[in-house]
Amino acid sequence: MSDFATKRVIPFSPPDISELEIAEVVEVLRSGWITTGPRVKLFERRLAAYIETGSTAIDCEETDAIGKYSNRVVCLNSATAAEELNLRILGVGPGDEVLVTAYTYTASASAAIHCGAAVKFVDIQKDGDPVTHMPEMDYDALEAAITPKTKAIIAVDLGGIVCDYDRVFEIVERKKTLFVPKLSDGTILGNLSTRIQESIGCVAVVADCAHSLGASRIVSRTGKGKSPQPERKYCGSIAHFTSFSFHAVKNITCAEGGASAWCLPQAVYDSGVTDEEIYHMYQLLSLHGQNKDALAKSKVGAWEYDIIGPWYKCNMTDIMAAIGLRQLDRYLGLLVRRDVMIKKYSAVCDELGISYMKHHVDGTDSSNHLFLIRIPEITIEQRNRIIEKMAEHGVSTNVHYKPLPMMTAYGQDCSAYPNSYDYYHNLITLPLHTLLSDEDVEYVCEVLKAVVGEERFSEIH
Ligand SMILES: Cc1ncc(COP(=O)(O)O)c(C=O)c1O
Q1: Does the beta carbon of 260 sit less than 6 angstroms from any atom of ligand 1?
Q2: Is 456 buried (19+), middle (13-18) or exposed (0-12) by CB count in 10 A?
Q3: Is the CB of 80 under 6 A from ligand 1?
Q4: Distance from the CA of 408 to the center of ligand 1, in angstroms?
Q5: Å from CA of 105 to ligand 1 middle
Q6: Cβ of 77 below 6 Å from ligand 1
Q7: Disulfide-capable partner of 217 in 149, 162, 366, 368 (CB 3.0 to 4.6 Å)?
């Protein structure tokens, strides 16, 4: 095995926590208010401003911004909860089908199952999207899979690259005649979701943007409808409903955490639904169906509350939001740093003839979350050996993802998803995070070159 003068230890994805986050958390702990409160509300408005404008610098404590960016994003304790509440607000439940890419993390599918719906997997395109190489769904297969039971499509912006939502919206538009909105069960939630389904009038486009906060794409269609000119839109302002993750390994972390955002056609508002109503429903669903949160109850004489439904408990705390607020302050700089590393990795992959995900092409600006590489003409055993050898040299890598149909929970049979299996079998995810120095990145590249070279040499001899 090759020797390197100095072995480095390169973890896969440690959190990048600065003194700013630490100071903000200490301040919350000292403030006397640690659960959902003012910091969560501020974080929600700042996220709303960011996904609308691409700017993290808007003062969301200022009166106009409070008016403009409230009731647009809801912070929760995970992206999984965010996706589940998105589907519940949409009224997805037993008897419904949700179409999910076979190539994703379990949360993209399990949230639909938690709601009682059936998941139908859709294979990816052979070798992913022809331009970005992102493992995007096969859109012809997606269209063919829609039935009168289909209520939602879960598209995943894997690694931070935004899916082709124009294609997805064209498909749901073409399949409109098959769509059957659900009947209300007469509850407050049932009434809201029926009005949303009836006024959207097609299968809902639900984006899993766990990886893609801050990513954007030039699109002509969004959840709001067709725009006169194609324009750049940020994740959270494209699909009907979106979920984000602030898990420990994500670009922005709150230790754990997530958020929901929505972007709905005018017809929804014409039917009488308001953003305040949608926001309020997320609050109810995420806090036991209780009609007052802890902060509202703490006001003088305001102890009494009602339970509107026997719902869930997945709110974000102010401690989590404190970390998120300071991460968001630093985020645009972190994205630039990730981009520098991606350029370096891309150059080495070009040199080695390795295919990789292209993060900034064709009107797409990724959030640079994961760097997936695929080594041509190797077996799964060789891929695993490369991972082991890189680990022996101190470089932690990963595989995003083993296709869901291969997993025990989903039946352990990938035969109907050959493109997903093929994409996975020679894939390695390189470490990409903002604690890596230039020297670390250089070291990862050198180890990759040496280990792939050795594997190719042993193949020939
Ligand atoms: C694609 C995808 N979706 C959803 C999730 C779930 O995120 P969370 O852990 O915040 O629930 C993850 C987490 O890794 C993910 O990678």
Answers
A1: no
A2: middle
A3: yes
A4: 19
A5: 7
A6: no
A7: 162
Instruction: Please work out whether the CB of residue 217 comes within 6 Å of at least one atom of ligand 1.
Output: no
Identify which of 74, 105, 402 to mutate to test ligand 1's pocket (most ligand atoms within 8 A of the CB): 105
CB 49 within 8 A of CB 55: yes
DSSP result, 27-91: HHHHHT--SSSHHHHHHHHHHHHHHHHS-S---TTSHHHHHHHSSSEEEESBHHHHHHHHHHHTT
Summarize pLDDT for 280-303 with one digit per residue, the tens: 999 999 999 999 888 888 888 888
Which of 398, 366, 384 is CA-nearest to residue 14? 398
Share above pLDDT 70 across residues of the chain, in percent, rounded to a whole number: 99
Per-residue pLDDT reduced to its tens digit, 327-371 = 999 999 999 999 999 999 999 999 999 999 999 998 999 999 999
pLDDT tens-place string over residues 68-78: 999 999 999 99
Contact between 294 and 86 (Cβ < 8 Å): no
Distance from the alpha carbon of residue 245 to the mean position of ligand 1, in angstroms: 6
Q: Is any atom of ligand 1 closer than 6 Å to the C-beta of 73?
A: no
- Give distance in angstroms: CA of 75 to centre of ligand 1: 15
Q: What is the 3-state secondary structure (H, E, C) of 251-276?
A: CCCCCCEEEEEECCCHHHHHCCCCHH
**What sign results for the dihedral spanned by CA atoms 366, 372, 373, 377?**
negative
To which H or E segment does residue 21 belong? Answer: helix 19-31
- How far is ligand 1, taken at its centre, from the CA of residue 79, in Å? 6
Span 213-242, pLDDT tens digits: 999 999 999 999 999 999 999 999 999 999
Q: What is the DSSP letter of 293?
A: -
Is the pLDDT reported for residue 399 higher than 90? yes
The rounded distance, in Å, linking the Cα atoms of 415 and 364 is: 32
Tell me, in angstroms, the distance from the centre of ligand 1 to residue 13's CA.
14
- 208 alpha carbon – ligand 1 mean position (Å): 8
- Ligand 1 neighbourhood includes 210 CB (under 6 angstroms): yes
Q: Which two tokens mark 10?
A: 């390169």
| Tokens at 248, concatenated | 């420990």
User: Cα separation of 123 and 101, whole Å?
Assistant: 6
User: Nearest CA to 366 among 239, 223, 245, 234?
Assistant: 234
